[in-house]
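Progress note, sequence design subtask.
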């Protein structure tokens, strides 16, 4: 996939006001003993093929789950549904960044560290 044919955005996830609306687990069927951690950042990636992926990570790099969506818009709507007011603004991953996943994790860690230092 060429760089011009993709969209990569991330958004920070702050503390949730209540319980998580969606719980991600490892494997299928859903197993409550294998709940993945709540994310600090979500990463949306869409390319020239139909569909978009929504990935969830903690600021320490733990995987928090992923979901496929038919469009970039529906992936964004899912993130808004899951995290409501805790979802931050979407930020584009720079074109020259090859590893968007690593970038999202480092971005989240840097933002959280700067908040703690304030």
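Output:
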């Amino acid at each position: 996939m060429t760089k011009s044919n993709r969209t990569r955005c991330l958004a920070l996830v702050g503390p949730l006001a209540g319980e998580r609306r969606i719980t991600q687990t490892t494997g299928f069927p859903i197993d409550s003993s294998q709940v993945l951690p709540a994310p600090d950042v979500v990463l949306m990636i869409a390319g020239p093929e139909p569909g978009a992926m929504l990935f969830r990570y903690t600021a320490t790099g733990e995987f928090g789950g992923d979901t496929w969506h038919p469009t970039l818009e529906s992936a964004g709507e899912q993130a808004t549904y899951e995290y409501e007011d805790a979802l931050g603004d979407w930020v584009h991953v720079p074109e020259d960044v090859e590893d968007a996943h690593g970038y999202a994790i480092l971005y989240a860690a840097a933002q959280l560290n700067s908040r703690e230092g304030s």
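The first helix runs from residue 72 to 83. Work on this subtask will continue into the next period as scheduled.
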